């Protein structure tokens, strides 16, 4: 079943005045402006204050997927876009640490701890594979000065490639 919105009789009385001759006269622009304002009041704006998708949204369907995390602060029900933007700006001025937090984070390589520290990153592996004097000299010294102690430390034998 489809339901349609029907205007209430009080809305018709605000829209126009009918005199006895049947002619319809539109009353002041004030009543038209009020009706337009009422019709746009159904639209609400939603603000997500923090997180990766922070900003002002014009529909809850757009904002809802980004509000499921526990640390996300959001508010809805702003009647005008200006109110929502003003609220968002106020939050940013009151909480500047939210915007600066990302810049203060240390680089990823300095954050590595525990077992992960022992696993080389792709950049480290690529650097080891790159041929340079220090790598070549180190490898040559290992091969020329090979002992059983080195085998125990390194865990492999040098293989002659032809």
TrEMBL record:
Region (Disordered): 1-24
Polar residues: bias regions: 1-16
Domain Ribonuclease H1 N-terminal: 44-86
Protein name (record): Ribonuclease H1 N-terminal domain-containing protein
Species, as recorded: Arachis hypogaea (Peanut)
Segments forming a coiled coil: none
Pfam families: Cauli_VI (PF01693)
